[in-house]
Amino acid sequence: MIELKGIYKWVNTGNNRTFLLKDINLSIKEGEFISIMGPSGSGKSTLLNVIGMLDEFDEGEYVFMNEPVHKLKEKQRAALYKQYIGFVFQAYHLIDELTVYENIETPLIYQDIKSSDRKAMVADILDRFNIVGKKDLFPTQLSGGQQQLVGIARALIANPRLLLADEPTGNLNSKQGEEIMDLFSQLNKDGVTIIQVTHSEKNAAYGSRIINLLDGRVEK
Amino acid sequence: MFKNYFKTALRNLRKNKLYSIINIFGLTVGLAACLLIGVYINNELSYDKFNSNADRIVRVTMEFKQAETVNKVATTGTKVGPQFKRTFPDIEDYVRTYISSSIVKNDTKIFDEPRVLYADDPFFKIFSFKIIEGDAATALDAPGKVVLTKSMAEKYFGKEDAVNKTLNVSGKDMIVSAVCQDAPQNSQLKFDFVTQFLNLNNVKEENWWTANWVTYLLLRDKNSIPQLEQQVNNYMQTPAVRAEARLDGSNYLSYHLEPLTSVHLHSSLAGFEPNGSITYVYMFLVIALLILIIACANYTNLATAQSAGRSGEIGMRKVMGASKQQVFIQFIGESAVITFIAAVLAFILSMFLIPSFNNILGTHFGLDVLIQPVPIISLIAFCILVSFFAGLYPALVLSGTQIIGVLKKGFTFTGGNNLLRKSLIVVQFSISIFLIIYTVVILQQMNFMQTKNLGYNKDHVVVLPIGGKMKKDFQNIKEAIEKVPGVEAVTASYETPEFVEWGDGITAIDEKGKHEISLNAMPVDLDFTGTLKMQLAAGRDFQQFDFAIMDTSNDYANYRQPFMINETLAKKLGWSPEQAIGKIIEKGSPGPVVGVVKDFNFSSLHDPIGPLVMFLSRDFANVFMVRIAGNNTKTTLSSLENVWKQRVPERPFNFHFLDDDYNKLYQAEQKTSVLFSVAAGLAIILACLGLFGLAAFTTVQRTKEIGIRRVLGATVSGIAMLVSSNFLKLVAVAILIAAPLAWWAANNWLQDFAFRIPVQLYVFLIAAIATMLIALITVSFHSVKAAVTNPVKSLRTE
After folding, report:
1. Could you tell me the pTM of the whole model?
2. CA atoms A126, A129, A130, A133: torsion sign
3. Which chain B residues touch A49 with a CB distance below 8 Å?
4. Based on the domain organization, do B604 and B495 belong to the same domain?
5. B759 and B632 housed in the same domain
6. Greater confidence, B529 or B249?
7. Region A115-143 average pLDDT
8. B543, B576: one domain
9. Given Cys at both, which of B231, B504, B572, B649 links B521, Cβ 3.0 to 4.6 Å?
């Protein structure tokens, strides 16, 4: 599903070139549950963003679902991730001015899905996540765990093949964190490929494979 | 999708109440100003165009040279219409018109009607005033017929059918032949009654001179104007016509043809009402746009400032698949939502403002002018434009942001955006300061004109029109008025002294030779200079015994006319005031100069004081001028009215005050000054509101910095200064930009006045200091609040 070959990413500060990613070679198959680990500043989030096509890289080849990402234009990349990838963030990034229902619905709007279909899909996922009663509340009226649940529901609404999660439990207490991780395992069993960035060994253990990063390199 | 955007927009509005109120208020005011001014401009530009023959109608104006002076007037003699029609086949028809006030009465009602129109028979054929009842073809075909407007029909006959009823107009019984629609706002001819031209006195004979009548021609072809004008002027130069018009030497008489639709805005010659001016139309347009620019700049500034808080939302929308265009449309949409809310409010506001608007401009618009397709469609079109321009920049910036940066660090404006925001503030304040200075200069000049020593005292002088049989009873009526308690002095003249229009010429012979001078002339009664409190430079006012030399026997063979002249005329003749006394001058008849009056302003302050001759005469007395004691005006007026009712029962007691007449001369300036005062006020309020919002935003953004500075030992005042100074610098730049422009513009405006104030430096200083202070107060509201906040609180945020 994902094929990374010799990926480099750097920033220039004055005369110095600082490498954020250095020679990343990675192959991820459909159905895997990957945990990316490493100390602060090791490039975990950068790698995740590169995989999610939210961030660019400077060198190397990236093939996603048989599409050479490094050769695509921004629009085509956007179309690609819109179709296949869902994102979950540490800070949830829900839109404060929209209700739970509307937040979940928004990605469908951008994918030009008909209003009646949207209703059915959102109702379905609200039901599945047991948050039907909260659908008219605004994000600020929810607890952190509930917000992240909405965040995941939103990420899954368009049936992505790949779920990218950047420290999804980072802002949650341990019980809430556990519930989220259980949900991830369940999703993975249902066939969703998951890549998560985490600091916690315990959360990493939910995954089928762990990738350790240090100073932008994959540690073997 | 739009529902989603719409919801976000509305919820954002609710969330940021301060910004929303500032934005909506500003745009409401801006759009209301544009709407009202648009209505006015539309009215000005549409003048006379309702006439279906508009492009074939011309007004004839007269140009003539006499006594080395060229004169242009909008009136012609009685001969022009009929003679031209007989001579030039291009002319289909003509109508001669005259509007005067006349006494109108029926069994129950009597009024002095100011707008009785006298017009030739084809009037309703040439102009498109709609006849509601009766037949247009025969409405004016006999002298005993009168056409009423709808409101006059109601005024005199109530709900009854007016046609075929009798009405007495100016002493003649007439049959109401038709009722027509009221003359529209945008017609140069505004009337309440129409009756035949030949009902006027002394118009039956065709005459090139005695030019009191406005002549309109209906042409067969709208393109024939230049060629017809040429033909007319060739014709006027033929010896036969010159002889008939008694022209000799270099004197001439010629005519110009003005297209009907260009009279109101482009002619220098006023007709029945003062002309509008294309300059005013432009001035209005500019003011509306300036206010709208300030409101739009507020929106742009506050929207970009606010958008920092929305970067997360935008980033997330992009992650979820929103394209750049979709984000762009969303933000343009938001400005559209605000603008349309403002537009609805502006529409309602305009309805409430129409009466005051009428007051300022002297128009008579009703609410119906707004509820029409043109204003509504223009308002919507304007909204779309404003939404786009105000929302463009925030939409561009926000849609162009990189997702990753936004999600990671949040979003801050730096560099270029700041420059834009600063420039917008400078533009707003430049406009405000410009308007303030310009307004102050206008107001100073207005004040100068109100208080200037005119050479006579215009206060507490009651003006009473003389008409009908009153002239025969002149002496008795005058004496009766003089006896009224509270009346100090009474005189009479042809015109009131604030604006003398009577043009004339005199000849004077002295040791240096013969002088011919064109000047203004005033027939006056006894006590003229005394009643008006004019100063004499030499000699005396007219006395009763001066009438003795005015010998009308023997066909005026020994008639001598006593004169008074003004200083300017004496100087022009090379005489000192003392030398002038006893000199003989000739105006029709010769006579001695008995007095020299000190120069007084007998024309508008736009013009310098010219030469003037006053001659003793009661034949031309048109108005009584009654000086009353200032302390008990009401009682004096009611006693005057009682005397009037005894002496002149056939005429209503209509009076006005001389100072009101004077002020009417400066109606245009009065309008300008009110307009600019309002505009300057709005501009500074809107600019300050914008500043207020922006200051609120920046202080929030700098909370942390301010906290750190406080911890490091900065004082409250130091911090308030730190935050305020950034804004004050911009206001200072605005002052530097606006001051020279205002100086230039104000001087330009003042050039129109022969009597004017100098533009003074202190006006600029006061405007600058005032603006600085207002801006400082606006900004410090927030900066002081931020400065006194306990730093522990502001630093705890993370």
Report:
1. 0.77
2. negative
3. 404
4. yes
5. no
6. B529
7. 91
8. yes
9. B504
